[in-house]
Specification:
This is Transcriptional regulator, GntR family. With 222 residues, the protein is mostly helical. It folds into 2 domains: 68 residues, Winged helix-like DNA-binding domain superfamily/Winged helix DNA-binding domain (Arc Repressor Mutant, subunit A); 139 residues, GntR ligand-binding domain-like (Four Helix Bundle (Hemerythrin (Met), subunit A), Up-down Bundle), CATH 1.20.120.530. It contains 12 helices and 2 strands; from the N terminus they run H-H-H-E-E-H-H-H-H-H-H-H-H-H. Helix 2 packs across helix 3 and helix 5 crosses helix 9.
């Protein structure tokens, strides 16, 4: 049941009310929303406010407006909101997911990498090594290496998921680089991983990727 809106930004509150209704499956994927006038009455706001809220949720992919037909639920999750929630999770949770993604990526990269993939990973890793004391540059090139590794998996779904999760990935890199209490993956650790991918040793690459952040994860769990 939709709750009438009392105060605050009417459009933002209408968006939140509709999003909550969709996320809690008051309407399922494929369901048609009530007409604009009914939503307006249920929320206690104008039809213009409802129209703008629906437009925003359609933009983020939760709703789909079909001309002359109505508005339908397209997805039960707002990708942008999900990303914000990920950013608020514990660092241990983020590291666990990052390890899972990069471990699978390393295994697939060892099986599927091309010469161009190897060049991209090598350039990023060489730049990471040369950055030395320049922390910002080292983080940038570290990110570039891991994105190149994932791209070398040639799995578009994995690459999209990794890109989507990249903000949390950046946070883990910055934290491990800045926090003296967290062991930092060395340049040599990265070089060994690249070498395994280069010689197409998927078992070794998978293990090395898994071990890359394991010490940081262990330190966080203490």
């Amino acid at each position: 049941m939709l709750k009438k809106i009392q105060k605050g930004s009417l459009v933002e509150t209408a968006i939140e009310s509709l999003r909550h209704a969709i996320e809690t499956e008051q309407w399922l994927v494929g369901d048609k929303l009530p007409v604009e006038s009914d939503l307006s009455e249920a929320l206690g706001v104008s039809r213009n406010t409802v129209r703008e809220a629906v437009r925003v949720l359609a933009h983020v992919g939760m709703l789909e407006t079909r001309q002359g037909d109505g508005t339908y639920v397209r997805a039960t999750r707002d990708a942008g909101e999900t990303l914000k929630r990920i950013a608020r999770t514990q660092l241990t949770d983020q590291l666990e997911v990052r390890i899972m993604l990069e471990t699978e990526a390393a295994k697939l990269a060892a099986q599927r990498r091309t010469e161009q993939d190897l060049r991209s990973m090598t350039m990023a890793l060489d730049a990471r090594g040369k950055a030395d004391a320049n922390l910002e540059a080292r983080i940038h090139h570290d990110e570039a290496f891991h994105h190149a590794l994932v791209a070398a998996s040639h799995n578009s779904a994995l690459a999209e998921l990794y890109d989507y999760f990249s903000h949390a990935i950046t946070q883990t890199i910055e934290r491990t680089e800045n926090d003296a209490d967290l062991p930092e993956p060395s340049q040599e650790d990265h070089e060994l991983l690249l070498a395994a991918v280069r010689r197409q040793d998927s078992v070794k690459a998978e293990k090395l990727a898994q071990n890359l952040l394991a010490p940081s994860l262990k330190a966080l769990r203490k």
